[in-house]
Amino acid sequence: MEQDKKITVLQVATLNQPISPDLGYGPIETVIYNIDKGLHNLGHRSIVACSGDSKVTGEQFVTVERSFGEYCSEDTPEKRKSMHLHHFKVLERAYEGDVDIIHLHDAAIVERIYKGIFKSPVPIVMTLHIPSHDKGSFKQWSETLTSSSGMYFVPISEYQKRQHYGLVNTMNVIHHGIDVEEYPFKGEMDKVRWTRKAIYLLSAE
Asked: Of 107, 125, 156, 190, which is the most exposed, with the fewest CB atoms less than 10 Å away?
């Protein structure tokens, strides 16, 4: 891909929390917010399929009115209905023909979206947020993929990449983090060095 070519990325959010810059911690929704803002600032077209109570920098494609508001919530018929509607509208948007890449984060949706656009030339990228020892449907499905499947997986640490050894089309590690411009450094450099070393040691375990 040419360096100056602008692309259109369809990011598929979860419905657990709204996309927002001020959730107070770093879940998937914060990651999506930062990627969306970064793509937009670089001049790319970023479309975020998400709940109506989300805040995005690029284009917001609303699939449901509100997010669930929490990660651990009761599995209700209303919740399942919202998830099915979310998936259906994402597939409709992907079929419009103007998307270059689809970016997913949720193992529960990736298989459905992949099967829904199986005949589409649009590559699908999934950031891995799941442990390799998960023996659920994602692992069973991912083991059937070939290198020509158009599915690509991005680990978030070197440790996770080693955990998922053998997963087809595993890309280079892209670490999760924060927008450092929004958190100016205040403190002593010795503490920063210690923290960086601690994080490195933890990620290498």
From this structure: 190
